[in-house]
Amino acid sequence: MNREQHLKQYYLCAGFGLGFALVAIVAYSMERFAKVDLHLGFTFLWLAVLMLIQGHIQHLLSLRADSSQSRTFRWTSKIRLLGMPLYDVYFPVQSDCNSLKEAQATGIFAVGLSAKGIFAAGVLARGIVTFGVGSFGVVSVGVCSIGLLFAAGTLAVAPVAFGVLAIGIVAGGVGAFGWKVLFSVA
């Protein structure tokens, strides 16, 4: 796709996102003040957020569409807290990195193939609050989640665990193993 197509999708997503936000505000106002039971306010609010995020992604892609060759995408904050950048988004091209350590995004908010930070999201996420295929942290959500306090996902291992296979002190899921099983099918 070229720059014009990305910008067209950006404006379309931004328009729908703002429209959904307006509908969410009106629906919430009717639920709150007119006592009309619609239950649509938060639904349209989530749609608005998703459309605005998609629009932002299309805008970032339009900025990259000028170059004909594929490049590594890196977006890092200049603000540093606790010795790390505030945010780091890093998606390398396959030929740019030889190891997982080279493909790592590190920051307070880290997003990438491999992410390490306070809030981390990626294929391999490590940190305090993590989300990803393999997530390891204090609170982790993902396909294979190992948490120090809470974990949720297909395989969840933590003191409090929820998932298809949950292992913990307090567990719930299809197959739950633990001292206190909240719910289990198996």
Report on this model:
The protein is of the alpha/beta class and 186 residues long. The chain folds into 2 domains: 3-64; 73-184, no CATH class. Helices cover 30% and strands 47% of the residues. The protein is built from 2 helices and 8 strands, in the order ααββββββββ. The protein has helices spanning 3-33, 41-64, and strands at 73-76, 80-81, 84-85, 87-91, 104-157, 160-167, 170-177, 180-184. The protein has a 6-stranded mixed beta sheet with strand order 1-4-5-6-7-8, with no helix packed on it. A two-stranded antiparallel ribbon has the order 2-3. Helix 1 (3-33) packs antiparallel against helix 2. The model has no long low-confidence stretch (mean pLDDT 80).
Number of helices: 2
Strand content: over 45%
Question: What is the terminal-to-terminal distance?
Answer: 49 Å
Cross-sheet strand order for the largest sheet: 1-4-5-6-7-8
In short:
The chain is of the alpha/beta class and 186 residues long. It has helices spanning 3-33, 41-64, and strands at 73-76, 80-81, 84-85, 87-91, 104-157, 160-167, 170-177, 180-184.
Strand and helix layout:
Layout lengths: L2 H31 L7 H24 L8 E4 L3 E2 L2 E2 L1 E5 L12 E54 L2 E8 L2 E8 L2 E5 L2
Parallel strand pairs: 4-5, 5-6, 6-7, 7-8
Antiparallel strand pairs: 1-4, 2-3
Helix pairs in contact: 1-2
What would the keywords be for this entry?
six-stranded mixed β-sheet; flat; alpha/beta; 186 residues; single chain; two-stranded antiparallel sheet; 8 strands
